[in-house]
Amino acid sequence: MGMGLSALLVIALVLLAFLGVQVAGLQFLFGVVIPYAAFFIFLAGVVYRIVKWAQSPVPFRIPTTCGQQKSLPWIKSNKIDNPASTAGVIARMALEVLFFRSLFRNVRAELKDGPKIVYTWEKWLWLAGLLFHWSMLLVIIRHLRFFADPIPSFVKVISSVDGFFEIGLQHIYVSGIILLLAVTYLFIRRVAIPQVRYISLLSDYFPLLVIFTLALTGILMRYFMRENVVAVKQLALGLATFNPTVPEGISVLFYIHLFLVSVLFAYFPFSKLVHMGGIFLSPTRNLPNDSRARRHINPWNYPVEVHSYEEYEDEFRQVMKAVGIPVEKE
Amino acid sequence: MYKSRNILAGLIIFIAMATFPFWSALGNDSVAPVLELDTPAINQLEEKQCVESRDFMRRRHMELLMEWKNAVAREGMRIYRASDGKTYDMSLQNTCLKCHSNKEEFCDRCHDYAGVKPVCWSCHLEAKGDE
Question: What does the pLDDT look like over A73-82, one tens digit per residue?
Answer without folding.
Answer: 999 999 999 9
